[in-house]
Write a structure and sequence with these properties.
The protein is of the alpha+beta class. The chain has a single domain, classed as Immunoglobulin-like (Sandwich). The protein contains two helices and nine strands. Strands 1, 3, 5, 6, 8 and 9 form a six-stranded mixed beta sheet that branches. A three-stranded antiparallel beta sheet has the order 2-4-7, with no helix packed on it. A hairpin with a 4-residue loop joins strand 8 and strand 9. It starts with a helix and ends in an 8-residue tail after the last strand. About 5% of the residues have low confidence.
C-alpha cells in the first residue's frame, strides 16, 4: 500500500495535469491532418456532395445540417459513407454515417454542435473507392463544444 505522502503527490500531479491549458478549438491545419489520417493520400475531388447549413447560427449547441450526395444508390454505384469535419471544433472529426445501396437515397440530416466561425467539410466515399467533398461556412455567435475544456 502506498504511503499517504505518495498518494498526495500523485493526486497533485493529476490535478496539475488537468489544469494545463488545452486548445479550445482545432485549426484548419488540424482538420487537414485529421482528414489525411482518415483517408491517407487518396485524392478528394470537389463535387457530388451538397452540404447545407445556415450561414448564421445564434447558438452552436444544435445546428441543423444536411448532406446530399449525387448517386443513384444502386449495387454498381453507391455511397458507402459520409464523414463530417469541422475546422474550429475541439475535435475536427465530428461524425461518420455508413450508407449502402439499401439506403435508398444518399441524404443525411442531423444536428451538430459547433464552436466559432468556421467551415464544415463533408466527404463521401463511393463504392469504387473515389472520395468526393462539399463544404459550407457558418458563423456561430454563441459557441458550443467548450464545456469540459475550460
Amino acid at each position: 500500500m502506498k504511503t499517504r505522502r505518495e498518494w498526495l503527490a500523485r493526486a497533485a500531479a493529476i490535478t496539475g495535469y488537468a489544469l494545463l491549458p488545452m486548445p479550445l478549438s482545432a485549426t484548419p491545419a488540424d482538420m487537414r491532418r485529421t482528414m489525411r489520417q482518415a483517408f491517407g493520400d487518396s485524392p478528394i475531388a470537389a463535387g457530388r456532395v451538397a452540404l447545407t447549413l445556415p450561414a448564421l447560427a445564434e447558438n452552436g449547441n444544435s445546428v441543423r445540417l444536411s448532406v446530399a450526395v449525387d448517386s443513384p444508390m444502386t449495387d454498381e454505384d453507391h455511397v458507402e459513407f459520409v464523414q463530417l469535419f469541422a475546422e474550429a471544433n475541439p475535435l475536427p472529426d465530428i461524425a461518420r454515417f455508413e450508407l449502402g445501396p439499401l439506403s435508398g437515397r444518399a441524404e443525411i440530416e442531423t444536428r451538430i454542435r459547433l464552436s466559432a466561425e468556421q467551415s464544415i467539410v463533408a466527404v463521401a466515399g463511393m463504392n469504387d473507392g473515389s472520395l468526393w467533398s462539399g463544404s459550407a461556412s457558418i458563423v456561430v455567435t454563441i459557441a458550443a463544444c467548450l464545456e469540459g475544456l475550460i
